[in-house]
Amino acid sequence: MVEMPAPNQDVLNRADAIARDLTDLIPDHCVISSAQERRAYEADGLTAYRQAPLVVVLPETTAQVSRVLAYCHQHGIRVVPRGSGTSLSGGALPLEDGVLLGLGKFKQILDIDFDNRCVVAQPGVTNLAVTQAVEHEGFYYAPDPSSQIACSIGGNVAENAGGVHCLKYGLTTNNVLGVEMVLIDGTVLRLGGKHGEPEGYDLLGLMVGSEGLLGVVTEVTVRILPAPESARAVLLGFPSAEQAGDTVADILANGIVPAGAEMMDGPAIRVAEDFVQAGYPTDSEALLIVELDGPEAEVEELLSRVSHLAENNGATYERVSHDDDERARFWAGRKAAFPAVGRITPDYYVMDGTIPRHRMASVLTRIRELSEHYGLGVANVFHAGDGNLHPLIMYDANDPDQLHRAEDFGADILRACVEAGGVLTGEHGVGVEKRDLMGTMFNDTELKLQNRIKCAFDDQGLLNPGKMFPTLHRCAELGRMHIHHGQMPFPDLPRF
């Protein structure tokens, strides 16, 4: 089980006083302190772990966020930022002695600028709402995680979310132009904006994917794109995942960059089709959904080339969308794969690792071996174009042994990703889920360097502690010089 930082008993003893102090800083209705009401915030999308927060605050303005953070900084109180609570890595898991800072009331789109092709939104605006706000003028927001109907733009920034169209159009980091953020001491900063690349260090790039450890985002400027002239999707069924993986590799090797290239294995195909009736071939052991977009003539040519490559790799099923409704239905099955799996198992554990595309078949084979070893079912859905795997481990959380096996199974999948030359996460973040595996990917020097970056923003380690880093270091400890047998390192260097 995941261990969180030991609670500060002094803070726990002052819980009532802290709640009263917070109501002096922000309106009473923005502070939740009763035990029953706090339970609504005890978990995020990683529901295996639960912990009620000390107090919940739901500020309505940047100034209120600033006051709350400044107060917590002054009094040494930990803070966990939270968006929509859809994090699948436990990134918004509360702390017993911490303030949960929810951004759910920041849900306004502040500016739509078609001339500069951007939207300024508060962090509580859902991902899908951005596209809905601009589609009447033929624009859309490209990153589209499967949870886009619920996940927030602020959370997307924190976790660097992706989606089925990230292969061609990039992750959140490629589509965010600027943020307003509040540091733990209450300082309000602006990074980037509607203008081009800013001078100096790329602090905006540092913030995207920082998982709430460096600051709290209170405003986001995102890039919007004109909708393509034409978009078509094709379903391709294969007898094996190896053949589907080879097809993806051939598509990209031939200079074709699809808007999306998604794969599902046999179990995922069948549960998604039963749930959505998208037209998936239930007798296939692997399904590719490939979308091409651009001028109509170009799309037709690319569809023909993709079809030829799939046939060469043994495709046994092909179906091309004829209109936008049918294309949307193809994607509906993929985007509903997670809840579809939830219909056949009491609980499931969603993993998120990324591998080189050419290692897809071997890693899927390893996942099947691990499934047999742990005695737990698994369904695989993933962004095949960039090698981002999402195995769904099926288990029953009411059985502690199954939960333990699911955790070990997931950890072994992530180790297999790293051993294959990949990384621990593609878009869900590290959170608490992958925190203790960071040592499999980074050495001690690299982890300390990342810790020092956090210390530059958060000198007391109050923002979202217990996430990302396997060992909690005080900032002062990171700066200490190690003395071995009374000898300093490099004793010949002059020291001032």
Structure description:
By secondary structure, the chain is of the alpha+beta class. It folds into 4 domains: 9-102, Uridine Diphospho-n-acetylenolpyruvylglucosamine Reductase, domain 2 (2-Layer Sandwich); 109-226, Uridine Diphospho-n-acetylenolpyruvylglucosamine Reductase, domain 3 (2-Layer Sandwich), CATH 3.30.465; 230-338, Alpha-Beta Plaits, CATH 3.30.70; 345-433, 2-Layer Sandwich (Alpha-Beta Plaits), CATH 3.30.70. It contains 17 helices and 19 strands. It has helices at residues 9-13, 15-25, 35-38, 62-75, 127-134, 153-159, 166-169, 203-207, 241-253, 266-276, 296-312, 324-335, 337-342, 360-374, 400-419, 444-457, 475-478, and strands spanning 31-32, 55-57, 78-82, 98-102, 109-113, 118-121, 139-140, 176-182, 188-192, 216-223, 225-226, 230-238, 260-265, 286-294, 317-320, 347-350, 353-354, 378-383, 388-395. The strands form 4 sheets. Strands 12, 13, 14, 15, 16, 17, 18 and 19 form an 8-stranded antiparallel β-sheet that branches. The chain has a 5-stranded antiparallel β-sheet with strand order 5-6-10-8-9. Strands 1-2-4-3 form a 4-stranded mixed β-sheet, with helices on one face. Helix 10 packs across helix 12. It is globular, with a radius of gyration of 24 Å. It starts with 8 loop residues before the first helix and ends in an 18-residue tail after the last helix. The model has no long low-confidence stretch (mean pLDDT 93). Its cofactor is FAD. This is Glycolate oxidase. One of its GO terms (molecular function) is FAD binding.
